[in-house]
C-alpha cells in the first residue's frame, strides 16, 4: 500500500487549500484515514480523520469549523479542505491509513503513511 499526499503550497492567512491523499495497492474501503501535521521543532499531531465506511469524522479542536475531511470512492482518495488558514497551520501534513482501527488520533495506530506535503501560511 502506498499513500500519496499532495496539494500543499503557500497561501495567505485567511486563504484555503485542499490536500489530497490517494492510495495505490489497496482500496480505502474499511479503513480509517487520518491527517497529521508536524510544524518545525514540534511533534506530529492529529488534525482530522475519516472512517471510510460510514464517513464518520473527527477533528482536532484547533481546526474544528475550519477544516473538513471527505472521501471519493471512485478516486480512492481522501481530501482535507482547509479554510480560514492561519499562520499556526504552517506544517508538513501527512496522511495515514489503517485497516484495523475504527478511530484514532494517535499516530502510532496508523500502519501506512504518505510522504507529507508542505503547507505554509504567510503573507
Q: How many helix segments?
A: 0
* Share in β-strands: over 45%
Helix/strand/pairing class, anyone? mainly beta
Radius of gyration: 13 Å
Average pLDDT score: 96
pLDDT < 50 stretches: none
DSSP helix fraction: under 10%
By DSSP, the count of extended strands is 11
Shape category: globular
Taken in chain order, the helices and strands follow as: EEEEEEEEEEE
Major pleated sheet: 7 strands, mixed
**CA distance, first residue to last residue:** 37 Å
Name a few traits of the molecule.
seven-stranded mixed sheet; mainly beta; four-stranded antiparallel sheet; 49% strand
Description:
This protein is mostly beta strands. It is built from no helices and 11 strands. The strands form 2 sheets. Strands 2, 4, 5, 6, 9, 10 and 11 form a 7-stranded mixed β-sheet that branches. Strands 1-3-8-7 form a 4-stranded antiparallel β-sheet, with no helix packed on it. It is globular and about 40 Å long.
Amino acid at each position: 500500500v502506498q499513500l500519496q499526499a499532495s496539494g500543499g503550497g503557500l497561501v495567505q492567512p485567511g486563504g484555503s487549500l485542499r490536500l489530497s491523499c490517494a492510495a495505490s495497492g489497496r482500496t480505502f474501503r474499511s479503513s480509517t484515514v487520518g491527517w497529521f501535521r508536524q510544524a518545525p521543532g514540534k511533534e506530529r499531531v492529529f488534525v482530522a480523520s475519516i472512517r471510510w465506511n460510514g464517513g464518520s469524522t473527527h477533528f482536532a479542536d484547533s481546526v474544528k469549523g475550519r477544516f473538513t475531511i471527505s472521501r471519493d470512492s471512485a478516486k480512492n482518495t481522501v481530501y482535507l479542505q482547509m479554510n480560514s488558514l492561519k499562520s499556526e497551520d504552517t506544517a508538513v501534513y501527512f496522511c495515514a491509513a489503517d485497516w484495523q482501527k475504527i478511530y484514532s488520533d494517535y499516530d502510532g495506530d496508523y500502519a501506512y503513511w504518505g510522504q507529507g506535503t508542505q503547507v505554509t501560511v504567510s503573507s
